[in-house]
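Hi F.,

I've been meaning to write this up properly since the lab meeting, where we talked about keeping a consistent format for the predictions we share between groups. The idea is simple: the sequence comes first, exactly as it goes in, then the structure tokens exactly as they come out, then a line or two of notes. No screenshots and no reformatting. I'm using this chain as the first example so we have something concrete to point to.
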Amino acid sequence: MRSLFSITTVISLLAASVSTSVIQARDASKGKPLRIPMRQLSHGPVFNIKIGNPPQEMIMLDDWTWHSTWLYTPHCKGHYSIPDCVLPGQNFFDYRKSSTFRNASDADQTFLGTDYTPGAPFTVSFGTDELCLPDKKNHKGRCQQKVEVELSNLAFEFPRVEDIGGIIGLAPVLPGFNATYYPAAYQLIKAGQFDSVVGWHMCGAFKNKHSCEGQDYLTIYGGTDTSIYEPHQMKYHHIVVSPCINAGNLKLTPARDNYWSASWTGFWIGNKRIALSTPTTAMPDPPVPSCSTIDPVAVFDEGGLGRGAPIPLSAFSTLTSATKATEVNSTSALPLNEGKQGLWAVDCKTVNSLPNLVYELSGKQKITVTPS
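Output, unedited:
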């Protein structure tokens, strides 16, 4: 067995197991926190929601970087057809069967460079419907009417069955954004369903999964689980809003810069500190002059989807040497990474002898990632 990792640039993704305060809300009467255990599937942590009337159950990827709630639908190639657009076994939302669904007036949006459809246009339409988050104290769930969501409207039939039926985003909402950039959580916060804090942690590094209620992850809308950390040790980071984030590995068209992020101020492989410089040869092609001297930025995400360990290019030779990694050729029909990146592998038998990776954020917090 081999473990895979990929070359990434200084502007990269960083998966963290710390609880994170997210999403600022306006004044509203707040409901009680909502605890949602999540299980691990191929794309990352997932949980089920219900949408529409009668309610349809959807398997949703919990995604820190996506900006809305995206749902797989039978709309593709310019028409609506379950036989043509949905493979057998695929979880999807049939909005025509919901009595409370309404089309939204917002224009379609098309993105290039998404992980879900790498190299192909990712087009969405918009609508509203009742959306219910899972709640153990209420069989129906914690529900909100007229939640605006994205609906798949692809120009092609998706080539394979995915183990999710949608994406529930958690990206921050910046001033001037309209409802097409409102995650479901933000809309429920605005409606007073819970407070403007979202806690999130994984249980893989713990002795047991009690704090995740037997699952792999836990997210808490409206609070955090103080049993897994010391509140007085909580570190707060100012997010970085910069167009240069989109000039690196995290490339999306049209560009977005609303990510949970922090200044990346230090990096170590084992005990060796590595400079966070980017060679001029690694700058975007075509280059973005205003981004040539950008300070390193870490963008938080809950998954990786083939991205592997986030490292500066200056650290790559050190990492491959320390891990005795060898380059491999991918036979995947779809690229594992968006950028022009190589794929390397290490022998899993050597995992226990591999060095830790240590990340310093904002000059005040270090996060250690252990081999697995």
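Notes:
Residues 316-323 form the longest helix (8 residues).
The CA atoms of residues 235 and 252 lie 29 Å apart.

If this format works for you, I'll send the rest the same way.

G.
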